[in-house]
Amino acid sequence: MSNKQKSLQSHPLAGWLMTAPALILIVLFLVGPFILAFGFSFTNQRLISPNPTQFVGLSNFEQLLGVGVLTLDPERDDAGQVVLDAEGQPSYPRLRDYTRNNPDYPQYDGMREWFSFSTGDARTYVLARDTVFMKALTNTLLFVIIVAPVQSGLALLLALMINQKLRGINVFRTIYFMPVVVSIVVVSLLWRFIYDGRNGLLNNLLEFLTFGHFQPIDWLGNPDTALFAIIGMSIWQAVGFHMVIWLSGLQTIPLTLYEAADIEGATPWQKFRFVTWPGLRNTAVLILVVITMQAFALFSQIDVMTNGGPLDSTQTLVFQAVVRGYEQQNIAGGSAISVILFLLVLSISLIQRYLTRERT
Amino acid sequence: MAGLSLSNLKKTYGKVEVIKDVDLEIGHGEFVVFVGPSGCGKSTLLRMIAGLEDITGGELRIGDKIVNQVQPRDRGVAMVFQSYALYPHMTVYDNVGFGLRLNKTPKDVRDRKIREAAQILQMEHLLDRKPAQLSGGQRQRVAIGRAIVRQPEVFLFDEPLSNLDAALRMDMRMEISKLHQELGATMIYVTHDQVEAMTLADKIVVLNAGVVQQVGSPLELYNRPANLFVAGFIGSPKMNMVEVSVETAGANAIDISGPAIGRLSLATEASGIVLGDKMTLGIRPHDFQQVPEGPFKGTVTLVEHLGNETMVSLKLANGEAMIAALDGDTTCAIGETVSLDFNRDKVHLFDSGGQRRG
């Protein structure tokens, strides 16, 4: 045994000391804000305010999530006939009469129409206390529901194609991966030109392909197309990233399994169905969860391309959280949205894990 | 049912020739073993027969059909891989029935065949398990089950026992041998283990560097190796090789001499052997006996008592090493001088090109 001085590495605090830089950063910028957001969401905290912060219980959440259903009968004349308006539609009492200072309907006070539908003569109004938040919520869900399957499916297709042993296949790998490397802000700016209403690349292309019959669309300026334009661009941007994850999954499947399948007489489809797909199970779970979480966090594209418009058609939860927290200085409201988003993503991830669990 | 015929079979990767003009006839029902050192091309040859590797040149027939361009699934072959190649997410039942499921065999027929195969391989109790829950030997059984359930005309085994421990390997070897007798199908088996080759084969094909060195029954290869490579490869411990030169060449006998042995007379057909030829004399370790005064004299460097025999390593006067398998009750110690004689009827003579003479 040498009589060397004991190494500093064996000191009981050495491990903590070495993890300290990372630990401090994580606590400061992840754990801290996370706990603060939970705390703020139960207060009336503002970004800058002379008034002291007060605990307000669940009122932030009530404000965000409050909904009501109001069914109105059409107005009738003295004979009991439905009164029709100038366009021949039945006319209904004004909604404002119910949602503003109506002592008979205190539960609807301050609500606005979210959407409405007719059942027979009656018209049912779904009211929300915060229609912008509701719009953001539904937009985000729609975004997730479309992006998750389409992006993961497309990425798998690319991975399968790129997994071939062909000359120059690396060029394609690089091309497909390139958008991932470029900042999403830059990509969003570029796609604003592509989607431009007058001289955008997409309009020009469509006009060219239809021999000029196509009428140019202002893709980002039209409430009907804006969200879908952003969905398309988002899928394109991140598909390469998920392609690489699929690819790594594909390459863990032993080649002999395919050879055995060849000898057993499997067609290409059967090889995918019985060898590839089961072998990609864990990768599929990972990709589904990652895409879902990324999709819920949709922000940069909106911030650069549409700012939530037109007519709130591209509002999303994270964008709303930021707008409220910083532009409207309503830190408590923004925090409440963050907390709702967190619970939403958490529960969806848990459901996904449960549905894709290993059955034994 | 089918035999195989390989003529001028070639395989190159770029400029590297890995299989060079292999000609081989395999009769129906034969058990043929491809044996050779790593990288000799034996697995490549098997994979060419399976259809997993393209054939660069020559002709491969299974039965009387040329199958060079035929898809693996249409060649009527089944293959057992060294890594077993079982599908991890399927039960043993589904693994065995995989091929039948792919070709849409009716469920009841499939079930009967799977159970038959399981019975032959004594693994009926394993049918509900997944591969991860099986031992190595059991996995190999499943892989063999998957092969036999389709009743192929030709079975291909690619080093199937290499991943098993020694005791299990011996058991499985016997089972494969039994299986061959029961099924009567043509089997081609690749191994680098010459014991497997000797015990299983009707016919051994020794390959080296993509060239067939010798084709023959195990005893033919052992008793009359065609060249130095086969002589050194078949038999354990390895054959002893001694450099000699020809002193006199008579009609039925030659005299040889060498630094290790002095001068010796051998009865052999000496046609074509001329005075002064450099030759190699091969003596199997088991053809030595200990004698008071013999042609070989050396110092013992290692003694291994195996019970039924004793392996004695010697260092001859000129520094050459030699191994002799002597009686089990031989007593000698390291450093002692031992004198050996050998069975003159069983010597092997090879010319300077390494080919067998006499």
From TrEMBL, chain B:
GO terms for molecular function: ABC-type maltose transporter activity; ATP binding; ATP hydrolysis activity. It is found in: Cell inner membrane. Gene3D superfamilies: 2.40.50.100, Nucleic acid-binding proteins (2.40.50.140), P-loop containing nucleotide triphosphate hydrolases (3.40.50.300). It is a peripheral membrane protein. GO terms for cellular component: ATP-binding cassette (ABC) transporter complex, substrate-binding subunit-containing; maltose transport complex. Keywords: ATP-binding, Nucleotide-binding, Transport. The keyword Nucleotide-binding applies. Residues 4-234 form the ABC transporter domain. InterPro entries: AAA+_ATPase, ABC_transporter-like_ATP-bd, ABC_transporter-like_CS, ABC_transpr_MalK-like, ABC_transpr_MalK/UgpC-like, Mo/tungstate-bd_C_term_dom, NA-bd_OB-fold, P-loop_NTPase. It comes from the Bacteria. The keyword Transport applies. Belongs to the ABC transporter superfamily. NCBIfam families: PRK11650.1. This is Sn-glycerol-3-phosphate ABC transporter ATP-binding protein UgpC. The lineage of its organism: Bacteria, Pseudomonadati, Pseudomonadota, Alphaproteobacteria, Hyphomicrobiales.
